[in-house]
Design a protein that fits this description.
By secondary structure, this protein is mainly alpha-helical. The protein has eight helices and no strands. This is RNA polymerase sigma factor 70 region 4 type 2 domain-containing protein.
């Protein structure tokens, strides 16, 4: 059993190594970067770490992404026009997919993996976002 703890710690460390930078990019896209964004990522990863054995029994990517989203939602919004506008306009998953794939330019497979989705599920979210944004523009135009 004692050999299991270092393996769990190494697994978590590898998980963080693969996700820390993309998580910071995502949070910066939503909150504008800076120290608040770094704190949000640290807090979300710490929450994930504290639940790591249970996370491993589920889907680690989906769990950590949900925790990150919850942590961002609780953070103070920046004071500039349009801050986090996608998340005020679209369902959360669709907004996240747009940020990762279209704003940050991540390949669809990588964006899906970060969110704990399959690539086809990510494409569904992107299509939903495009449809909803087009409808919104259509109704906003006089």
């Amino acid at each position: 059993m004692s050999g299991q703890r270092p393996a769990i710690a190494l697994g978590y460390a590898a998980f963080v190594q693969l996700r820390h930078h993309p998580y910071e990019q995502y949070v910066s896209a939503r909150l504008g970067g800076g120290e608040v964004s770094r704190q949000v990522v640290r807090h979300a990863l710490r929450r994930t770490e504290l639940s790591w054995p249970a996370v491993l029994a589920a889907d680690p990517a989906a769990f950590a992404w949900r925790v990150l989203g919850e942590t961002v939602a609780l953070a103070p919004l920046p004071r500039y026009p349009g801050a986090d506008s996608l998340h005020r306009t679209l369902p959360v998953r669709a907004a996240d997919a747009v940020i990762l794939h279209e704003r940050l330019g991540m390949p669809a497979g990588r964006a899906a993996e970060l969110m704990g989705l399959t690539e086809p599920e990510l494409h569904v979210q992107l299509r939903l976002a495009r449809r909803l944004l087009a409808e919104r523009r259509r109704y906003a135009t006089p």
